[in-house]
Amino acid sequence: MPDAADPAPMNAPSRRKFRREGEERRRQDLIDATLDSVAEHGLEGATLRTIALRAGVTAGLIRHYFPGKEDLLQEAYAALMGRMTEQAKAALVMENASPRQRLAAFVTANLNAPIIDQRVFSLWATFIGRAGADPTLARAHREGYLGFRNEVEAVVAEVLAAERRKPDANELRHHAIAINAIIDGLWIEGCLAGEMFSPGELAAIGIKAIEAELGLAPEKQFQEK
């Protein structure tokens, strides 16, 4: 039985929690520094030294968290894709919204800032250009893609259930693949030439195309008499 005068057992959990939070915060800082370095110097120029300088740490400390540069790049790319998915998912938190309204909000979020952003696109293009020859980045891309597609499937399943349709897993998968392609294409257009489109134009096009993909009839518009 611990000595009653010894406060260690009581304090140990809070110290461990603090340590965990500090470790995770440092990892995130290093990931952010990596993304900044890649944006400025490219994948080759983003060395452990440049990343360490930007993060204000030593290269040796980076190796405490990541075995090597490739592991750090993989984590950074996964974080980039994960953040975009989380930003889109945040739009689904709507009170008293119908499934179709939630779908529209999800599409709109994907086709507006901060997801449509030239820096984000430049980082994505840099990583994806290397993924074909780098198994670690290819794995990060695959996981990020499937994670986003799973979110699309969940939203689509809600919409079709509200329409009293019962799609099987294969149909949901096909819809999610098509919808992901629609969003990706419009996202690239918005990132590369956003000034060519009026506010909300890409989102409106995306919603219309996705509703057509799902075979949804246009919603009735009610006007006050």
Which characteristics define this entry?
disordered N terminus, 9 helices, 225 residues, mainly alpha
Task: Walk me through the structure.
The chain has helices at 8-45, 48-55, 59-65, 69-90, 99-110, 118-131, 135-162, 169-193, 201-213. With 225 residues, it is an all-alpha fold. The longest helix is centred in the N-terminal third of the chain and has 38 residues, at 8-45. It starts with 7 loop residues before the first helix and ends in a 12-residue tail after the last helix. Residues 1-20 and 221-225 have low confidence and may be disordered.
List the helices and strands and how they pair.
Layout: H1 8-45, H2 48-55, H3 59-65, H4 69-90, H5 99-110, H6 118-131, H7 135-162, H8 169-193, H9 201-213
Helix pairs in contact: 1-2, 1-4, 1-6, 4-5, 4-7, 5-7, 5-9, 6-7, 7-8, 8-9
Question: What sequence of helices (H) and strands (E) makes up the elements?
Answer: HHHHHHHHH
Mean pLDDT: 89
Coarse structural class: mainly alpha
Shape: elongated
How many beta strands in the DSSP annotation? 0
Strand count, sense and barrel status of the largest sheet are: none
Total helical segments:
9
Give the DSSP E fraction (strand runs of 2 or more residues). Answer: under 5%
- Low-pLDDT segments, ≥5 res: 1-20, 221-225
Task: Please report the distance between the alpha carbons of the first and last residues.
Answer: 79 Å
Portion of residues within helices: over 70%
The radius of gyration computed from the alpha-carbon positions, rounded to a whole number of angstroms, is: 22 Å
